[in-house]
Task: structure prediction
Amino acid sequence: MVRDEDVVHKFRQSNFGRLSFFVGFGIFLFLLSNRVDELRVYQGATLAMYVVAIASLILLTGYSGQVSLGHGALLAIGGYSAALARNHLSAPVWITFLIAVLVTAMAGAVLGTAAARLSGPYLAGTTLALAVGLPSIANQFGFLGGEQGLLFDVGFPPASLGEDFTQYKWYFWIASLAALISIWWLQNILRSRYGRSWRALRGNEVAAELAGIHAGKSKTLAFTISSGLAGLAGALLAMTISTVSPSAFPLSLSFALLTGAILSGVTTLSGVMIGALTLVATPEIAAAISNRFSTSENVTTNLPGLLVSALLILVVLLVPNGPVEQMRTVRNRKRAITR
Result:
């Protein structure tokens, strides 16, 4: 019989192991940033942003079963919130990111309350309409900068880091630290009773309610947390491009994030790096193919989307649960056979 003390001890060991992994990975990223060129450092910051954004979508869709086709709109809310806090309040960098998280989480709570009453195509259509309509809404208010948008300058890195510490390294450090903290915190949430409740709702909502889970409150909470993470990703995106405008958060961004979540394995957080890396690497691969075959400008522009779409189709056909979940299933089958 397993004692409660043994369960608690194993749980603490698991938490310590995950925390040690994240700290070790952070040290590795720090060392790596000093050995690669500026382009790779900038891509690393973009990669960290995608990790946070895709993780927020995996939480919403993969764990709580709520489909969002307009997640880019939540990123836009976070980006605009951070820029307004920075420009009008002269808030420190970490405060601007905190404001982005809180404002977007509140917007997500309002949207999540309505979303809890919807399901399937109705919820997907609602989020899609938000992403389509957001650029028009932003253009109606002068304090949002209109079509030109707003500048978002996080400032120069601290002088104590040395003269060789570039602006892109500063972006990379901020984005990587935000991503590591977010994923570590999100993993703990998903291993708690909240995560178990969301998985139960995704599996069978009626059975979950009979077990005492309040479906509406649980879905709203998932939407709120997912929105807060999306807002953080939006602030990170605004930081890397130093501006926030309607063109920075197009509808294609929402579809790209959904694609990244599916490539990662929408039901597991373990493969989030795969989807993020795919979204970052695809434009570079497309550019290399275009240069190799001297394609037209129209082909060069549309080739990244074509490559991602083709890869998405292959993943859905061959590994519908994502590469990580597929490898885990194969490993469990092998263990079952050996026993």
